[in-house]
Amino acid sequence: MIALPVIQPAEAQTKPRKPDWLRVKLPVGKEYAKVRQLVDTYKLHTICESGNCPNMGECWGAGTATFMILGNVCTRSCSFCAVATGRPNEYDLDEPRRVAEAIHLMGVKHAVITSVNRDELKDRGASVWHETIVQIKKLSPETTIETLIPDVKANWEALETMISAGQEVVSHNVETVKSLYRQVRPQAKYDRSLEQIRRIKEYGKRTKTGIMLGLGETQEQVYEAMDDLAANGLDILTLGQYLQPTKMHLEVAEFIHPDMFAHYREEGLRRGLKYVESGPLVRSSYHAERHVHV
Known about the structure:
The protein is α/β, with parallel strands linked by helices. Helices cover 35% and strands 14% of the residues. [4Fe-4S] cluster 2 binds at residues 74, 78, 81. It is an enzyme of class 2 (transferase).
């Protein structure tokens, strides 16, 4: 008897199934509870929560979190991002103190700070950025800091204010390859983000960016992005799998196999990047403490 093939519904044929290697543990444990309490007590935002990060349980369980300043409403409407879009009304000048105190109480050796885009502000929120880093260094002088900063829309004076407060690593994510920018980051420009990275490097900072894979990019386009980034002074590249946060966001075009992530890591190093963190669950601040001294 010959077994007939099972015909799947059209949707099942076109939509890739989430593979086993993307399963993550639920957040539990004493350290997770401690971070949870600090975030709530100090009324802070984290990209871990706002961005639906799959590593939140691991990172919070290790006593670390990525704090998001300048509110939790973004002026951009990127089609991949779970952060709320709208007109922000939060501009809290006391936020730098609260973030610094929370980091001090956590006793972390390496802190990561990010923010939403605040395009409506003349300085893009740079003054709050600067003061946050100053306050962290004041309370925790031994703590190293990475700042994952937004696109300043070529406001280079604002950029200098953001990155001049003593942080060791400055990251700005290009997110995807050039050909997908209009679809993935409609309010951003690939070349402008490259220039921002170049200017950060020229200022003397260790530079970092992140790219999501599985949005429909080709291998050659990933290689071209690596070459562009290396040519503009990038030190550290993170590569991770794009995961659709809600049905309103872009669908996953492909789930990239871990072996391909390993291949991309070797390609990035071969093309002149100093450090490449590459894997399905890698996110911008994943293992960020490793990126301070590369």
